Each structure stands twice: as structure tokens, then as C-alpha cells.
Amino acid sequence: MLKESQIMKIHYMTGIAALFVVAVHILMRLVMPYNLSLEYDNVILNYHNLPYAVLLESILVLIAIHGFNGLRIILLEMRQSRGWEGFVTVVTIAAMMGVIAYGTRTIIVANGLSLG
Amino acid sequence: MTETIEKIEHLDKKRAKEHKEKEILRSSVTLKVLRANRAAGEPARYDTYEVPVQRSTTVLDALLWAKQSKDHSIGIRYSCRMASCGSCGMKINGIPRLACYTKVSELEGSTITCEPLANFPHLRDLVTDFSQFFAHHKDMKPYVQNKAADLDPSQITKLSEFLQTPEDVDKFLQFSYCIKCGLCYSACPTVAMDTRFPGPQALGQAYRYFADTRDGASKDRLDMVDEKHGIFRCHFAGSCSTVCPKGVDPALGIQLLRGHLLGFSKSEKKAAELKDRSKA
Amino acid sequence: MEVADRNNREGLKGWLNPGRYGWERVSYWLQRLTGVGLLAYFVGHVYETSSLTQGIDAWNAMLELTQTPLGHLILLLVIGMSTFHSANGIRLIFAEGGKGLGKPGRPDYPYDAVSLNYRQKSGIWIALILAAVAMLYGASVLFGGE
Ligand code: HEM
Ligand code: HEM
Ligand code: SF4
Ligand code: FES
Fold this sequence. Notes:
The structure holds 3 protein chains of 3 kinds.
Chain A: H1 4-27, H2 34-37, H3 40-48, H4 50-78, H5 82-112
Helix pairs in contact in A: 1-4, 3-5, 4-5
Chain B: H1 2-21, E1 28-35, E2 45-52, H2 59-69, E3 89-92, E4 95-98, E5 111-115, E6 122-124, E7 127-128, H3 131-139, E8 160-163, H4 166-170, H5 183-187, H6 199-210, H7 218-225, H8 239-243, H9 250-262, E9 273-276
Helix pairs in contact in B: 3-6, 6-7, 6-9
Chain C: H1 23-49, H2 56-66, H3 69-96, H4 118-142
Bound molecules: protoporphyrin IX containing FE (2 copies), iron/sulfur cluster and FE2/S2 (inorganic) cluster.
The site of FE2/S2 (inorganic) cluster has 12 residues of chain B, from loops.
């Protein structure tokens, strides 16, 4: 089991790393007119761009770890009993992995899609 | 940058000082006191008392006046009347404060509301149960641990003493001023939810002994607070340090201790020298 | 530990009126609210983008749902939340590691706690100002017309 100090080091590091990748992601909405940036072809082209697809995957993983650990913290403080603590650990880890898997599927599929 | 911050600090402090110096002088106030005997299953109600006050009347003075001349049954705990014993903590106008350390003239409005400290099990009227709070304090082993020193009085063979410089003392002195009044524990948003979180008082004491050059158990002290409901459940909301009446600043101690757990700070603590003073 | 007595714990009521303890408590309050808000947005966002896999029509249908005035208002909030949470988060990482708080000393009346210093307060204010600026800029992009 990880110690709480190790978990929180991960929490802080994923937070700092997310800052950079999310900034790039939001700036991508501004390299062209906002509405154009959301058009199907442009979005698919983004996914075809391998470095950017890797960036999306890293946002997905970093934010999922950071965000669901944040949720774990909040839930741990809500109630104190062995049962609840086990439940919180299982649910937040499962949700984290679920979101990562679901988002990764999008990235892989969209990476292989042809333009509309 | 630093200059701008200093300018803002100066302006804000000036405003706060002017605000504080504005004494509100009145000849009487209304005390609104929460009443209930929980052991008898009573629900809470509020009783009000009109109390004559002078410039230097404290909330404790006012409560004791009401108890003497209006209603002997008001339950209240106090002892020293001078912010030393830590027994008169209560919520005054919604904020945890010492009743003996809060003057009526610094409070706004014509009514002063007195309620038992939040986060402590309520017993009766303004009296709460401190046993959980003290248990958290005790969990931190709040005493010097040192294998080299003969601390066990039954085993003393030598008369030895620790040598500490004034600088060594300054590293922990302010944390040792804690009077265990529980105001910080009552203000803390994590304590409000998490019963296993030690709270600002206990964690502040963990740092107090961690930083003491006479103590040899630094490693154990770090391990003790590195758990699910331990030091990382502090989110630096700072409310403990806002309400502490003794300048302990528990939030500072907690963050400094956490800095050691995260590897931000290295311990440069040198063990205090042990000097044998026994006469041959 | 034995089952602890929750009698008289403030509980979620402590979340009302965050201003009564000063800026640091407001920061705690906002950091948590924005954290939860961003997490909700993130999960919704991953669901939103997954419509891509079902082709252009599904994507356009999703855009019709989200690129509305209300959708833009939510996006604006997300921009503000992520700016505040990130900027204040950086401050908190240092502060919670004991950096920028000052040193212990000999407390003197009226006992200003050094950890609640103006470097920390300015950090909170700067995060709030950055969030406001980011939201203004976002509004000019989202609502600024074609
Ligand atoms: C981008 C840079 C980010 C940084 C630097 C950052 C930093 C932090 C820090 C330092 C904390 C701990 C605060 C504390 O101890 O009270 C925190 C908590 C949290 N963060 Fe982030 N964060 C970032 C992005 C995000 C994002 C995008 C999300 C959304 C998924 C998120 C969700 C959370 C949650 C749910 C918490 C728990 C709230 C709490 O403990 O009060 N964070 N963040
Ligand atoms: C201004 C607000 C935002 C807009 C308009 C936006 C839009 C988009 C779009 C169009 C995509 C598809 C890929 C691309 O073209 O880049 C995408 C993917 C993604 N976005 Fe955002 N985004 C925003 C903010 C955020 C934030 C704040 C986060 C992090 C919390 C985030 C996380 C992600 C992730 C993880 C993906 C990849 C999802 C996947 O493929 O499974 N986005 N976003
Ligand atoms: S740290 Fe301050 S507020 Fe907390 S118990 Fe000690 S003296 Fe009271
Ligand atoms: S009566 Fe002793 S601290 Fe108030």
C-alpha cells in the first residue's frame, strides 16, 4: 500500500503536470476561430496528429488520477469506518480506470477514423 | 512585487487597527445563551439576560454576572480568567473565542450570542466534553523522547541536563504556548467532518516535539501522522491560526511538518548535547 | 479507534459562511468546489468527445447540445474554475510544503499568525484576478460574435 505522503506527492505532481498539458489543450481552441476548431474534420485531424493524441492521453491519465484522488480525499473526510474507507478506495480507483479506459477508446478509434 | 505586497499589508493592517480601536461603549448588553442539558435529553433553547457592562467587561464577566444575579443554573466552565487555563472557550457571535479574553466592547451589535464550542460533544449549556480532543493530543506522545537521556525518575543515576541555544528554543517555543483551549479544533473545517483527524492542536504539538533538539523520535513522529486521516487532511484553511488566542499558529507547524514528509525541507536538527552535572 | 462521537460536530454546516474566518478559509472553500466542479466537467467532457467514434452526425448532434448559450456559460465557468484552481493550487503546493510561510518566533501581542501572511493572501487574490481575466477573455471568444 502507498503511504499517504506518497499518494499526495502524486497528487501534487499530476496537478503541476496537468497545468501544462491542459493549457496547450485550451490554446488549441484559439489557433483557429473557436467554432472552426470544433468542426468534425478539424477535431479528427487533431487526433491524427500523433504528438497531440499523446498529449490528450496524458491529460486523460493525469487529470483522472488527480481528480479522483481529490474525490477520495473528500469522501474519506465524510465518514469514518473501515467499511466506508474500503468502499471509497475501490470506487474511486474503479471510476478512475473506467474513465481512462473509456477516453482511451475514443482516442484510439478517432485516431483511425477517416475524415467526414 | 514584494513592495506591492508590503504596501497592501500596511494599508490593510491600518484599516484593521482603526477598526479594532473603535471601542463600542454601551451601558448594557443582551446576552443570548444557549441552554440545554443533553444528558436529560433536552433540546437547545436560548435564554436572554440584560447585563450592565463597563468598558473593560469581558464576556466571561458578563456571563458570571448573569449567573450570580439572574440565573444560577447557567452551566459554564472557567478558571483563571486570564487566558491561561484554556477552559472558557465558547462560540461568541459564531466564532470560537475565550470568554475571558473577549471584551464586550470589541463586539458589534447589541446582542452577544454565546454557544458551546462546535466539534466537541455537547454536555450542558456552554460546557462541552474534551475527552476526544485530549485523546488526539495524547496520541502524539507530547513529551520528549530520548534514549540517551535518563528520563525515568526511578532510574536516575546521573544528574544531567540538555544544552540548548536560544535559537534552538525559538524553533519550537511558540508551539509550546498552547493552552489546549480547543478553539482551533472547533474552527477547523476538517475536524468538523473527520473524527479521526487529530486536528490542529495535536498536529501542532507533533511539530513542537519534532523541532525540539532534545527529542530523538523525529522519524516516529513523521510516521505517526503519515496516514489516511493524518496530517494530509489539512488543507491549509488557516482558521485554526485565525482563532488561536496564544499566537501558537498551529497551521504553520502543520505545514512545516508536512514539508519534511514531502521532502521539501531537510531536517538539520542537531541533537542537544547532554551534560553530566552530577557531583563526583 | 472506537466509534467516535459525532455529537455536535459542525459537519457540512461549516460550509456555510466561509467568509467568517478570513481569506484562507475562502480559498479552501473555492479550491474544493472548483475541484469537484472540474471533475464533473471532465467526466462529462470525456463522454462528450466519445461521440466522435460514432461519426460526424453524432458529433454534430452533440455540438448542438453543448454549443448553446447555456453550454457556453458552463464553459465560461469551467475556464474560471480551472484558472483559479490551478493558480491557487500552485500556491497551495508550496504552502503545504512549508514554503513561503515564514519562521516560528516569539509571539507577541496581538499575535498575528505568520502563516496567514500577505504573501499567501496576495496569492489567493492573484488567483481570483487571473480567473476573472480568463473568464472575460473567454467571454469575448465565446460570445464575441463571428
Ligand atoms: C491544472 C493544474 C492543477 C493544479 C496545480 C491542481 C492542484 C491541486 C492541489 C494542490 C490540490 C490540493 C488542495 C488541498 O490540499 O486542499 C487539489 C485538489 C483537487 N483537485 Fe486539483 N489541480 C489542478 C487541476 C485539477 C483538475 C483539472 C481537476 C478536475 C478533474 C482537479 C480536481 C481536484 C479535486 C477534486 C481536488 C480535491 C479538492 C480538495 O482536496 O479540497 N484539479 N488540486
Ligand atoms: C475551453 C474548454 C474546452 C474545450 C472547448 C475542449 C474541447 C475539446 C475537444 C474538441 C476535444 C477533442 C480533441 C481536440 O480537438 O482537441 C477535447 C478532448 C479532450 N479534452 Fe477538452 N476542451 C476544453 C477543456 C478541457 C479541460 C479543462 C480538460 C481537463 C480537465 C479537458 C480534457 C480533455 C481530454 C482528456 C480530451 C481527450 C478526450 C478523449 O479523447 O477521450 N478539456 N476537448
Ligand atoms: S493551538 Fe491555540 S487555539 Fe489550539 S488549543 Fe492551543 S492555544 Fe488553543
Ligand atoms: S478562564 Fe482560563 S482561559 Fe478563560
